[in-house]
Design goal:
By secondary structure, this protein is of the alpha/beta class. The protein has one domain (2-180): Rossmann fold (3-Layer(aba) Sandwich). The chain has 6 helices and 5 strands; from the N terminus they run αβαβαβαβαβα. The protein has helices at residues 2-28, 50-59, 71-79, 97-110, 125-135, 161-180, and strands at 39-42, 65-68, 87-89, 115-121, 141-147. A 5-stranded parallel β-sheet has the order 3-2-1-4-5, sandwiched between helices. Strand 4, helix 5 and strand 5 (141-147) form a beta-alpha-beta unit. Helix 4 (97-110) crosses helix 5. The model has no long low-confidence stretch (mean pLDDT 90).
Length: 181
């Protein structure tokens, strides 16, 4: 079985690498429909796109609160004109998605939060959604929104060695999270 899958992948790469990689990304990337929520959450990292998406959702009226766990994200939001009263901290430089999800769950319970939007880069969407659903079982509404990164998009990511490595790394991280948490 493993040999057959490996052979199919090898043939796919040999015949049409671009199609194979585009198809793999289409299967991997998950994104919920953007809609109203009580808050948008800016997890650590992704400074080049996550705070900008959060500011956009705030301005569009999808949310009234932006939750951050890094001072750098807050600084970007303030520079973008988001009022300080709309920004709250749910943790401090927590270091990984699991810790962020746990801290966010604690914050949400303390503040009776029922719905969030979480923008993240295309490759991390599956892992982020999985981790949040583990941390928030039940009726809590989670919208994970896939963001094209500033330096690559869904339709050209395989053209750069660094983004091929980023995709591979994210698959490994997803598997690790499934085994660890």
């Amino acid at each position: 079985m493993v040999f057959a899958v490996a052979a199919a992948l090898a043939i796919g790469v040999w015949l049409d690498r671009e199609w194979l990689l585009r198809s793999a990304a289409e299967l991997w990337i998950v994104s919920d429909t953007l809609g109203p929520a009580e808050a948008v959450v800016v997890f650590g990292g992704g400074l080049a796109d996550r705070p900008f998406a959060a500011a956009r959702y705030y301005r569009q009226g999808f949310v009234s609160k932006i939750l951050v766990d890094e001072p750098d994200s807050e600084a970007v939001l303030l520079k973008l004109g988001i009022p300080e009263t709309a920004i709250e901290t749910f943790g401090r430089a927590l270091g990984n998605t699991h810790k962020e999800a746990v801290a966010l769950r604690t914050w949400a319970d303390q503040h009776s939060l029922q719905s969030i939007i979480v923008p993240t880069e295309i490759f991390s969407t599956r892992r982020v959604r999985w981790m949040l659903r583990r941390a928030f079982p039940g009726e809590f509404q989670i919208r994970v929104i896939a963001l094209d990164a500033p330096d690559y998009r869904r339709d050209d990511w395989w053209c750069r060695t660094q983004t091929l490595a980023a995709f591979e790394k994210e698959v490994i991280k997803y598997l690790y999270y499934n085994l660890r948490y």
